[in-house]
What we know:
Layout: H1 3-6, E1 13-17, H2 18-32, E2 36-40, H3 47-53, E3 59-62, H4 65-74, E4 80-82, H5 89-97, E5 102-105, H6 108-115, E6 120-125, E7 137-138, H7 147-158, E8 163-169, E9 173-174, H8 178-198, E10 205-207, H9 225-235, E11 241-244, H10 248-251, E12 255-267, E13 270-275, H11 284-288, E14 294-296, E15 305-310, E16 319-326, E17 334-337, E18 359-363
Parallel strand pairs: 1-18, 2-3, 2-11, 3-4, 4-5, 5-6, 6-8, 8-10, 10-11, 13-15
Antiparallel strand pairs: 1-12, 7-9, 12-13, 12-17, 14-17, 15-16
The protein binds pyridoxal-5'-phosphate.
Amino acid sequence: xxxxxxxxxxxxxxxxxxxxxxxxxxxxxxxxxxxxxxxxxxxxxxxxxxxxxxxxxxxxxxxxxxxxxxxxxxxxxxxxxxxxxxxxxxxxxxxxxxxxxxxxxxxxxxxxxxxxxxxxxxxxxxxxxxxxxxxxxxxxxxxxxxxxxxxxxxxxxxxxxxxxxxxxxxxxxxxxxxxxxxxxxxxxxxxxxxxxxxxxxxxxxxxxxxxxxxxxxxxxxxxxxxxxxxxxxxxxxxxxxxxxxxxxxxxxxxxxxxxxxxxxxxxxxxxxxxxxxxxxxxxxxxxxxxxxxxxxxxxxxxxxxxxxxxxxxxxxxxxxxxxxxxxxxxxxxxxxxxxxxxxxxxxxxxxxxxxxxxxxxxxx
Length: 364
Ligand SMILES: *Cc1c(COP(=O)(O)O)cnc(C)c1O
């Protein structure tokens, strides 16, 4: 019996492995050497997850006033960086009131509004024209600024005594492996360090963002933190600070969505396994368009055959995994979707169809 079954959970249940998560974060930080590790709260802002991570990270990146207030409440002393497009005046004022350490400024207008408010340490978010072959998502769009706007912002900060330019922020792509991300880091620092020195920044900081690859088709594989951290250590001049802010690659592996089979049926030649819950709890497979990795926890024997795992929602989009091999399943059997610790519960449309919410469990 696996622990998830033995504990006789009320399904559906999210089960977070906090001890495993802490160990994983610790290993990442050790591999990073002197590069600072911030956690991107948007991947999973669960309070218990934040608390489990806190001893193993240098800070948290928040992207809204809501995340800011929540993380500050959960971790009163943790260093915070505040990023994201479309910050309101209220959010900027809240950031100053809650002693945010770094504000990642996204546009000249945002800088002008921040100037009206009061003292702040700023990283300017750069939208550099670097392509990343193999990226799942390139952050083209409303994020960051071109060189001429960056120059204008740096000059404007130089004329504003209560604002301090600390460095550059560049989160340009996601889903990259260590060699690709190191290559990108090299190109970012090659541009940013001389640029910052030219603008008189003496202890430059470069935030390289997140986006470390998580491969849902290979649950055993991990981003090569040793290669990445070693490469960054070599690339970092002694007076500079490098910082990263991953989300998915930190928490994805330490959450499971565990639920039981309600029905199994074959219609028009397709076999469907209908599970309690659905993508309104675990939106990840719908958001990424993949078959989510899972394990059958009930001991089973018998030949595998293809079936589609769905939830309880009245929409054909409520699919966890399509045409995947499963043993003969019957109502009551228990399935755990693995890799459900990031962009899972917190990105889901919880109240669609008004089914009960899952229960939450924390393994310490
Ligand atoms: C989403 C985001 C991250 C985290 O990305 P992951 O893919 O979860 O590592 C980091 N920085 C910024 C600015 C982001 O928008």
